Amino acid sequence: MNFPPLIDELEDAIAHGTPQRRAEILQNITDIFVVGSADYSNTQIDLFDNVFIRLANAIETSARAVLATRLATNSHAPSMISRNLATDDTFSVAGPMLQHSQKLDDKTLVAVARTQTQRHLLAISLRNSICEEVTDILLERGEKPVVLSAANNPKARFSEAGYRTLVERSKGDEELATSVGLRRDIPRLHFMRLLVRASHAVRNKLEAASPAMSSAIEDVVSEVANMILDQTGSARSYSAARAHVEALRAARQLCESDLATFATTEQAEEATVTFAVLCNLPIETVERAMGQDRAETILVLAKASGISWPTVKAILRMRAGVRGISPGEIEQAHEAFSRLKPAIARQVIEFQSKRSRGARLHQHIARPGSKVPEVSGRVASCLRP
Length: 385
What we know:
disordered C terminus
């Protein structure tokens, strides 16, 4: 490495040379570095680093872009110039470094991700390794191309908050939902949440992508269907309420307005029995749903049975009792109820019905010959933000 003559030329070019001359000097120094970089000592690489930094402040943007392109994929590239180029406001300079350079630390990537353009973010999303702190920012600031690129990057790591954001942003976006669902590292709970919100088209794409995916989806549905059976019901007697509801049904067909009336007038036992009849479920199943702290199981039962939101709201107000329910809780429940797909809710009920047919017939007050399904409580967790 014959540096002294080049250093002299560098000093002269910076002081008196034209942009073209400075670019030529830069090209010569870059050639020398690239050819021998694997054999240079740390001291020699530091010397190149100082030279590159001096030149970077004196050359045109186009020359900086060429330098960035040549250094970006070099694993021995000097650290200072790598960071200098990666933080450039001009994308043609920063882009290659942000996408390829191994010399950038997470602190630099975080700083760029928080301040730069969508093109900068997209370059970061294509890196061979991305930590959770960086992906959190990409998901927070990035538009769809950035988020989709990060979701499709198997080397990107996501935090719990990141996966919640991915699932939330997947709502109504089949392309993103498919990409998120196909990630091998997606936690099971987030996969469940994704499936609850996903369209049939997304689920079909997931199943078609891998034979194992079909089995995984079936396993999730199975898991989603178990929570209510694991919970303990109360010993409350519903004989009087059952007789009342049976009398109504004998006089005329029981309908949703009866349920709404019972809920509005806070006749809890009659409402529970009527809800069970309309849902075609055992009373104990609906009772457990009524007694849970969160409302999601009720939302699933109602959605699967075609019960409308005004009636569901009346049920939620009734079960809240003297504690009451805030407008915010009502709004959250309404949003969850709206995005829950009837087909998913019915599938969970049908799955559980295969487990419970026959054993619970004596608890069923619906018409003779009807099925006796149970429903999932774990779907509730899938709907939580």
